[in-house]
Fold each of these.
Amino acid sequence: MKLHQYSILLLLIVFTFISKGYTQETISPSLQLQYFKNSDEQRLLKATLSYTFNRKDIPLRNREILFFIGSKKDTLGKVSTNDKGVANLILSNDYKLSLEKDGTWFFTSEFFAKDSIEAVSAEISIKDVKIEMSLDLVDSVKTVTLKAYTIENGKNIPITGEPINVFVTRMFSLLPVADGIFGDDGTLSLEFPSDIPGDKDGNIIIVAKFEEHATFGNVEKRYSNNWGVVSNYKAPTTHRALWTKGAPTWMIIALTIMLTGVWGHYMYAIICLIRIKKSDDKEEQNLL
């Protein structure tokens, strides 16, 4: 009887392990939707699909994301996510986006359930904003003048009380140099720093940008100007570095000391062996 009970218990344990092996864990992903407009008025929707595992965000690759506009969900397109879980949809300037009653664009992105991944969606409301930038010398002071407005019923409506940041492009990121808040007339003047390094001609790219704005999204305006400090990145002919033909002096000295110490130990060991050999020969002669 006991043997029969143990057999049933063993079968239950084995069945539990087998069922766990074949049961696929359900993934509850997250979907982030962002809006971008660059200086050339090109608009882009960016959807990022990922899930959290061990407190890390894991991107979901090769998953189809659908994009819609309006409360009626008119299809804009579908894009598969890349290795970073990102799907980008470029909105053609020829395509007229339908407006909601409040004058905004209502965008939606959706991922439909597939395999063990649950369905998820994200939505944002965006009001189109235009940024104008002018660069002038006011009393010998480099000044960035910004103007921001929306268009409603063919009229320009100034943006008031909204913050904006000014950057300079660097090799890998944007360097913040100024920020301010638009006045009642929708304009803003900012003093530009005079110590920003530029290229060999002093050229720099100045960027005015709304970042992750709740109403406007990510919108920027760029201009190139020679307000930077002229930089000469050419290394002198006598310069010694790891990437030049001549190694740095400190490296030559350090290597010489190390090699001298190593070979000195070898010579000392050889001399000691010779002395031991001679000492053994003398002891043998004395015994004879």
Amino acid sequence: MRLPAKIIKKIRENGSKKETNFQKNLEFYPKRDIPYDTEKGLPLVHVEQNYFNFNDLVASDYVKEKLRNILVENKSVDLLSTYGLKPKQKILLCGPPGTGKTLSSRILSSVLGYPFVYVRFDSVLSSFLGETAKNIRRIFDFIEKENYVVLFDEFDIVAKNRDDKYEHGEIKRVVNNLIQMMDEYEGRSLLIAATNHHKLLDNAVWRRFDEIIYFGLPNAESRALLFHKYLAVVKRDDDYDYLSYVSSTKGFSAFDIVQICQSALKRTILSHRNVVTNADIEWAIKDQTIRKSIVNKSDL
């Protein structure tokens, strides 16, 4: 079945369009001492260099426009400063899991040419009184030394609503300290917080962000693009019916569809075939539907 002209156009753009801002030869910054948690002896952050661009992201035009605006502002720091303005540096990405928040952060890192710093909250949280706040301070001291793109993933862990009666005093102190550190931050790194549970965030935390971007579940057009993008490594059989796949995956995240495509490809390859069939894809959709039912604790 032939794809509509609108989707074909987007596929060609994704496959051939080159991002002029993408830097293939990123310069590594001088290595600094990674901050560690003194209780467990684990690193508080993971630093990596990424090589992604916007062709890797299937998202709404709204999301891409917001991300590109952030890039333009952070590439124009000197120009903005002549008018007494600053770029948006504190960004909140929220929405359902598997919708592209982490990938978007890595794309911003790649295009800006900044090392990517992933904050490890499994190391940040401490059982010692006051140590969690100290760990967050160590992270802020570290990222203030160079230009980074910093991702605070699962941000709700340390920025929960202080009015929650089930939270103890230590979490409230952590939130107070976090707000203070965000207010006092004067470095040039791009700070990104990501959460799947934005309703849990403390009201005061929201005001600390220069930009808030909501990542929704992919619409029908995006789901069609995802199927095409991630099944493109092998030939598709004549019975390829993208309309059926798009209809069957309403409410699925981009991550869900990537997993469907990977499962269909593995089934094809391990069966020693070089063509993915409608049966392969339908089997993978059914398998992912069962997985989602288990995760959501709903009846199969």
Amino acid sequence: MTIDYYSDYFEIDRLNNKKGKEVIGILKKHFARYGLPDCVFSDNGPPFNSHEFRHFSNQYEFTHTTSSPRFPQSNGKVENAIKTAKRLMVKSHKDTKDPYLALLDWRNTPSEGLDSSPSQRMFGRRGRTLLPSASRLLKPDIQTDVVGNKRIQKEKQRSYYNRSAKDKTELAKGDIVRIKPFKNGKEWTKAKVDEKCNIRSYNVTTEDGSTYQRNRRHLILTKEPMIEQSELDLPTQTAADRTDNQAQPIAIDNQVDDNVIEHQEPKPTIRTSERIRSRPKHLQDYVCTVVR
């Protein structure tokens, strides 16, 4: 899915695979149709983390920015568009209608708080649908208040979100943190902060030397000491050291001290009990014989 941040207009494409050649080919079609963007924002999965996509961004001269790993909220625009597309497809399937017509109607529906549809913001005019409409409504009409309306809308969303949200303290270079595990049963991994790579993302290095990019929400500051990889590696021993540290022969005396034998305690003997056993009262009316 590809979405335009300014107009909220999105395209849905079917991929045969997730390889770089397939995804780059789809993006080239969109760029030829709508123009080259200044910035492309994506997640960290393949193929966006490949050398092929990096070469593609340099060739088409756009900045490629990635979201925080394991934090879909940082890429909320696309996540919201995916929910909208799934909802349209599910409703079309239940109603046995054409999903493309449902997508066309959505693109021509005015967005809440913006007083214009994605098609109007993207192309400067409404698109013709199966709904009856006047000819004057299909004439070009450039929207000039989109940026101001979107800013007011985001400020409203921010005020509602900040009612219960609190800012986390920023981490400095060299701070020791624990990384949240994403599988149940695993412990938080100790790491050291290398640098701040985004607004709320940090590059951290674990004790085994692995480097990760994590959101601030997945890092907890700790006062534990950090053990570097160099300290974990044991020093190798040279041939000269092995020769000097060879074990010396030990003389073994086979003579046994007589005093040790005299002070040894004898082993206890196992014997049966000699106490007198009385016959139970409930057996007094019976004749009992013991068979040996």
Amino acid sequence: YDEQQNLKPAWKYVTDVVRYWISEFHLDGIRFDAAKQMDNYDILRELDNVAHSVRTSQPFYTAAEYVPEEPSILKTNGGPVDACWSSSFHGVLINNLTDLSKLELDLMKYVISAPDLVNYLSCHDNERFLFLLGKQGNAFDDNAFIRMRLAMIILITSVGIPFIAQGDEFGEAREWGDKDQNKKKFPMQWDLLNNERNRSLVDTCKKLLLLRKQREDMKEKTANFIYEHHDNRVLVYARSQELVIITHFSNEEKKDYEINNFPQNGKWIDWLSNEEYQIDNNTLKANLKPFDGKILVLQK
């Protein structure tokens, strides 16, 4: 604190920077890095107040990187920011899609249901998710893409805020490496879209984002886990009484697999494939492909 000027010079400088970026470039959100290294949250609270004061007529979102995620930093818990960066989501998903000797159901349920966390598959702090599927899980080509599709389904249908690193949506898989990362250039590989499986992944992402945008139940901060089977590597969760997500973490196909405890009987349709299913006695019977993911919507 500068007593002669009656201000905190560092605070003034940082708040001026935030004001400039938001007013000049019309940002609708800002991410604060390395919050764990801060002595207290006072400056974060001030920056959040400043950011929202600049964008009074439009929504604004603040997020803080805190590794591992810290719930106390969230406004819902009395903290200074709207959301917290979640490194756990990436770690739990890559572990359960590459190590088929285990299924961490409790951790999966945590990352799927935790609200106000920014979830991601890839970011600047780790290699591309598709690259890691090959490196850690020896999964390549179609085997890798079906796992990537399942990961995208979970990312977009989880309760938290989905973050997609540019390129993940169409299957970027180049290794970034540990040396001179900041000096490397990685132009977008648009020619990947000449491949059918890359285009298919993009189409899946488009449908998932449309689901997230159109359905009100995707805005709710709840996920109800209605079925799980550790040995069969199946986890099913409902975002509402009319929207159910089925995840299958196995490379083995399952024929006429029964999933009970469905919220409602009637005709359901897969949002991604348009396949129709009839639910009777609150039980679904369906074929599960390797690393399958289904998003079933009740038809009225």
